Amino acid sequence: MSSGKGVRPGGGVRPGKGASRSASASPNETERQRAARELREIEAAIFGRRNEGHVDPSNERMQALVDLLGDPQRAYRGIHLTGTNGKTSTARMIDELLRGFGVRTGRYTSPHLSKVTERIVVDGEPISDSRFVEGYRQIAPLIGLVDARSAVPLSFFEIVTALAFSIFADVPIDVAVVEVGMGGTWDNTNVLDAEIAVVTPIALDHTRYLGTTVEQIATEKAGIIKTDAIAVLAAQPNDAVPPLLERAVAVGASVAREGLEFGVSERRLAVGGQFLTLQGLGGTYDEIFLPLHGKHQAQNAALALAAVEAFLGAGAAQGAIDADVVCEAFAHVSSPGRLEPLRSAPTILLDAAHNPAGLRATLEAVAEEFSFRRIIAVLGVLEDKDVDGMLELLEPAVDELIVTETSSSRAMPADELAARAVPLFGAERVVVEPRLDDALETAVRLAEDAGDEVLVGSGVLVVGSVVTAGEARVLLGGRQ
User: Fold this and answer.
1) 268 plus 369 within the same structural domain
2) Among 64, 66, 235, 313, which residue's Cβ finds the most Cβ atoms within 10 Å?
3) Does 363 reside within a domain?
4) Residue 72: which of 135, 123, 147 has the closest Cα?
């Protein structure tokens, strides 16, 4: 194992010990600066309660909070998404399609890459700092009431979920597109009574809370399928199918399945993405350009289209929705931190894959769509993930591995990650850089050391968690 030094990709000087500034108000503070400061203070306060790594599997507190708020989640229609991988990308596609048809949307996804306001999106734009602050102030007194009644205080995720539902009701919106935080039945978002339940592919993840088998996890995730809803199901492992169908039968929900009622008929690579032919519930949609990489994103697109068709009432009897609108909407889809290129010469790709199933899809897309002769991976993971499974996938796919860590309290220390990696990779292929900025720096230097290959075949893949992708994105100057 080794460590490397070089020029920091983002440039600049590291702050010294005296570089921090007081969070208190300044006489010359603008309204925007004040809102940003208050947002940071609120985020720190609520994250310090119980963050997303400290789960108490129940939505009783959440139900109590929305009851006090007057059930804002009942003020609009709902599309609810669960699954193991692909939820955020699929939610963004659904949002884009619905807005193309003139539907006013609210989108709630998690976790965020760079800033907490990314989680709450109205009509395609994250809410402002001031709206977040104002919304929190309105619900803060009720948070105290719920805390007083419960042995376990409300968590960061419970509070932000309630805030999203409340803001959506105040706007108001027509439909909320909501991604679960974890699981389904007891997930805090499951106070939403959604008419469309979308289930992306299920795999092993969060096994401490959801179960140690795909069947158990599918049973938990099936809980978002509500009475008389339409369940739109991605292609699933065999063990995941029975629990999903059993739940649908039990609550009288209709089912649309990838590979039967809808799916990807054709895909071909294109500069900056791929062209698709999608078989929807109401017809065939040709020549769709999707500016995202990978077979998995094509499948997400088919899933999103079917969900929107179901929401708009399209189907075999009613026919297709407007194909021109569909094409236009997909052409504008983005999914930051999902195989996102941020630099060239060498190419730097960011991906939020944080479990073996997600990483496998990422590596397949890299092999298919990027002609790299040499890949340097920057890996930062959370301690509760299947680290060995991800390392086993990376070993044959990359040439060198730089192990690092992030600011998350759940981050696996770089030295511990290196100790897990060396038996697979060999010490000569593993570099330890505890600071993420140093890790990016070293990756760029190693790619550039390849000489002329940097122009034609060296790539850097930053992967391992949403936190890793998000923090790297900030360091590399990605757009908010």
Assistant:
1) no
2) 66
3) yes
4) 135
